Amino acid sequence: MAIHALVIEDFERKPGLMNLKQLAPSWEQVQAAIRQLEGEKRSLIMLCASEDCSEFMGVGGGDGGRYCCFIVDANGDEYGLIDPSLDDTQPTKFLMGEISTRPRNELVATHQVLDATKWYFHHAVLHPQMKWRRY
Question: 111 φ, ψ to 5°?
Answer without folding.
Answer: -65, -35
